[in-house]
């Protein structure tokens, strides 16, 4: 179930679920989620370049200990929206300070450069830890763990249904695209292409609605009362406590570094 | 349009998170348990749609389609888009963790607004008139998202102003394309399944 998120041909995650995650697998999913959140918030609060470099090194260490494939994961980590990239590239020129060099009459400042590096380090360290700790969970387990962490039941239900149908709908999308291709559709920047894409989206929408009606009827036939009982229980083991303590220790260490080299 | 961790100041992150939690709570209230399968399937379809590349000149763009989500789901677009962003961050490494609230707010609030402003117009009249209004709603949602991303950056520091302006200008073609695509999607839906919007009123009301 929900293997789009882990093995789709478009490389949606590139790893085969929990089997690829090494020592992280036996950890309690709740500990992994909470750990990623604590670590993420702590790293986002840091601003010293030394502490942030150590944080990125820690995240890379987590990646090395897990058995995620290095290259695709790192590529995914480094990938960011074009506009963020622009923003980082502009920062040295927009933050006033001591000039490093000038480009077409605009002076780049050390301060701005520092700020851009700081954002890049933070963003990569946090997202990498999140992908290693939480992204290696079986998607359905993520739903169960969030439920046990007292997320609202309806939100968890919504998440589970979304996870369940992403793969189904993606196959439908690929079927429609294949049908378009067989009829000689080649995407380009023209009115015809945009109209075809619009119709494609409309068709996906119509089929999704019709599918959801069938799903609800089928579930009602089986006694669906509006609630799916989530039975999975999790238990903390010694390993979880050790991991939690190590993570908190690492966070404390990062703050000490931040104080020493601000 | 995913902002990354570390780019925004703490007050912006905290404020955005609180506002997003409020929006998600409101959205969940508009979503009785019986409607969750429909909302989940739609949430999945928007997730899939966001993987579609549409060519623009020599490059291509990813669709966001928050306007269409708002037109179809109403307030329920808030939790549905949040789920999409959560999955993108955790499994694909798009966006960030601490900025999840801000990103949700920036994308889902325009969606809900588009639904409130243009939902009725898109569902009534001739299919063509509805499609035109839906297209305006689709373009409006992207424009509003861009403006909100700009505001989030602006509130975090003056140094981001040029970047925020640049974001708006570079997204003008994206607005046009999302508008056109949303319009045609609604045109097809209105023709193929006229009761679709009528049926969904129950979901968003």
Protein model, in words:
The complex is a heterodimer of chains A (262) and B (205). Chain A has two domains: 4-144 and 234-260, no CATH class; 152-221. Helices cover 68% and strands 3% of the residues of chain A. Chain A is built from ten helices and two strands; from the N terminus they run αααααββααααα. In chain A, a hairpin with a 2-residue loop joins strand 1 (99-103) and strand 2 (106-109). In chain A, helix 3 runs antiparallel to helix 10 (238-260). The termini of chain A are far apart. In chain B, helix 3 (66-73) crosses helix 5, helix 4 crosses helix 5 and helix 6 (127-156) runs antiparallel to helix 7. With 205 residues, chain B is mainly α. The model of chain B has no long low-confidence stretch (mean pLDDT 87).
Query: What summary fits the major beta sheet of chain B?
Result: 2 strands, antiparallel
Mean pLDDT of chain A comes to: 83
- Let me know the largest β-sheet of chain A: 2 strands, antiparallel
Helix content of chain B: over 70%
What quaternary form is this?
Answer: heterodimer
Main-sheet strand order of chain A equals 1-2
CATH fold category name of chain B: Arp2/3 complex 21 kDa subunit ARPC3
Q: Which CATH first-tier class of chain B would you pick? A: Mainly Alpha
Helices and strands of chain A, in N-to-C order?
HHHHHEEHHHHH
Using only C-alpha atoms, the radius of gyration of chain B works out to 16 Å
Any idea how many domains of chain B?
1
Total count of helical runs of at least 4 residues of chain A: 10
In percent terms, what proportion of residues of chain B is strand? under 5%
- The mean pLDDT of chain B is 87
Number of strands of chain B: 2
Low-confidence stretches of chain B: none
The global form of chain B is globular
- Detail the poorly predicted runs of chain A: 7-19
């Amino acid at each position: 179930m929900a293997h789009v998120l882990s093995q789709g041909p478009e490389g949606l995650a590139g790893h085969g679920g929990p089997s690829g995650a090494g020592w992280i697998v036996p950890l309690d999913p709740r500990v992994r989620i909470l750990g990623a959140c604590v670590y993420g918030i702590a790293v986002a609060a840091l601003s010293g370049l030394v502490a942030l470099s150590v944080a990125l090194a820690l995240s890379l260490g987590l990646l090395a200990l897990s058995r995620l494939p290095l290259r695709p994961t790192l590529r995914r980590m480094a990938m960011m929206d074009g506009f963020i990239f622009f923003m980082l590239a502009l920062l040295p020129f927009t933050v006033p300070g001591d000039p490093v060099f000038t480009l077409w009459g605009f002076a780049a400042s050390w301060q701005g450069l520092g700020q851009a590096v700081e954002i890049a380090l933070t963003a990569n360290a946090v997202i990498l830890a999140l992908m290693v700790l939480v992204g290696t969970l079986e998607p359905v387990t993520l739903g169960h763990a969030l439920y046990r962490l007292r997320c609202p039941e309806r939100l968890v239900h919504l998440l589970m249904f979304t996870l369940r149908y992403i793969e189904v709908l993606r196959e439908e999308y690929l079927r429609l695209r294949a049908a378009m291709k067989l009829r000689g559709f080649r995407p380009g920047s023209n009115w015809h292409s945009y109209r075809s894409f619009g119709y494609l989206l409309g068709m996906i929408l119509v089929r999704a609605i019709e599918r959801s009606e069938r799903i609800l009827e089928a579930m009602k036939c089986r006694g669906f009362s509006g609630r799916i009982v989530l039975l999975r229980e999790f238990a903390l083991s010694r390993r979880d406590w050790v991991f939690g303590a190590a993570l908190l220790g690492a966070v404390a260490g990062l703050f000490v570094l931040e104080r020493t080299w601000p | 349009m995913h902002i990354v961790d570390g780019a925004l100041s703490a007050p912006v992150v905290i404020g955005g998170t609180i506002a997003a939690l409020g929006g998600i709570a409101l959205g969940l209230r508009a979503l009785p348990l019986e409607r969750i399968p429909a909302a989940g399937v739609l949430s999945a379809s928007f997730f899939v749609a966001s993987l579609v590349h549409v060519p623009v000149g020599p490059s291509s763009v990813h669709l966001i389609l928050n306007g269409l989500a708002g037109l179809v789901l109403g307030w329920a677009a808030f939790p549905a888009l949040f789920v999409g962003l959560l999955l993108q961050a955790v499994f694909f490494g798009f966006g960030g963790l601490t900025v999840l609230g801000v990103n949700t707010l920036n994308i889902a609030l325009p969606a809900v607004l588009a639904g409130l402003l243009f939902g009725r117009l898109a569902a009534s009249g001739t299919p063509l008139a509805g499609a035109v209004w839906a297209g305006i709603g689709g373009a409006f949602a992207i424009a509003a998202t861009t403006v909100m991303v700009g505001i989030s950056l602006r509130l975090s520091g003056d140094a981001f102003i040029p970047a925020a302006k640049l974001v708006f200008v570079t997204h003008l073609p994206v607005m046009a394309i999302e508008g056109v695509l949303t319009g045609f999607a609604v045109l097809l839906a209105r023709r193929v399944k006229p009761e679709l919007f009528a049926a969904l009123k129950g979901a968003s009301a």
